[in-house]
Amino acid sequence: MDESQQSCMADTVALQCLSALVMDLSSNKISTLNAEMFLHLISLAKLDLSGNPFFCDCNLAWLPRWVEERNVKVSRPSETQCAQPLELADLPVFNVSFSDATCGADYIACLPDNSTGGAESIVRFTSRLPQNLTEEMCSALCYADGQDYGGFSEEADCFCGFALEPNVSSGCLPFCARPLAGPLCGGPTLLSRVFPAVLPVSLEGPGTPCSAYQEVAFILHLPVAVGTIQWDFGDETGLFNTTKTTILQVYTLPGLFDVTATVFVGNRFISAQTEIEVLASPEEMALQCPSLVKTNESLQLHIKNRGGTGLSVAYNITVQDQEPGRGEE
């Protein structure tokens, strides 16, 4: 060391090192360094950090940048190595890529392109929901929030987001590269468990034919509360808007009707359908039989029905002192 140079050892008081030209912190079992300790070392020209078991995480990300900005010469850089984490062990600290860039998002997901294996598009998550939600509930809440995707963090928080346009997502694509050359510092958190935001709906009707003028119930099953529900019962009553998921309807005419419930969420909508068969009760019904029946001749019966639909008639013929004959039409 030249006599004109000043040196500062690891156990020297920081104030005594402000004008140091050379700092030797080698072989001191140092695992990390605080950036604030080096802010005022404006005269430092040479630094030796070799022989220390550095933990190369984001707390050390400032060091390579600071050395470059201050034009400080590093002594024995190849011997200034990481000890932890294991995937970076024995790698020179100044060869580690501390990714401290950002792409304007705190949480993202990388949707893969199955044909190339690379990232096809980026999902940016903008809202967080409580923990302990099922995937179905998280997905439904994200749909109700107007988002395209749901996802879970390692802490089981539910996140909702949307896919970025290709010209916007390019800044986030580097964070999808695997493996990373070093710790991810300052960039977005990657969510690996991602799924489309969908709202599962189903419509339940009576399940069996009903009679005209009979009150029937329809139930719309939804995992979350929504806004407007538009009902179409398939008859002459027209469209009906409400927020109720259970509704009663009376049909006045017989027939087979398609029932549709449409859920409106923001500028999107989703529908569920079922069908119902409505039967009309007869105003008049009678079984007409001949007044005289001869042995070994066929018997002709007539059913008189006025106003009824979907009917079946059961009858029996009783002969004195014999078993009755039965029939059904």
TrEMBL record:
The protein's UniProt keywords, in alphabetical order, are:
Leucine-rich repeat, Receptor, Repeat, Signal
Q: Outline the extent of the PKD domain.
A: 228-263
* Annotated Pfam families: LRR_8 (PF13855), PKD (PF00801)
Q: Which residues form the signal peptide?
A: none
InterPro entries in UniProt? Adhesion_GPCR_A (IPR051963), Cys-rich_flank_reg_C (IPR000483), Ig-like_fold (IPR013783), Leu-rich_rpt (IPR001611), LRR_dom_sf (IPR032675), PKD_dom (IPR000601), PKD_dom_sf (IPR035986), WSC_carb-bd (IPR002889)
Q: Ranges for the WSC domain?
A: 104-197
**Got a GO cellular component term for this one?**
plasma membrane
Q: What is this protein called?
A: Polycystin-1
Q: Which organism is it from?
A: Ophiophagus hannah (King cobra)
Organism taxonomic ancestry: Eukaryota, Metazoa, Chordata, Craniata, Vertebrata
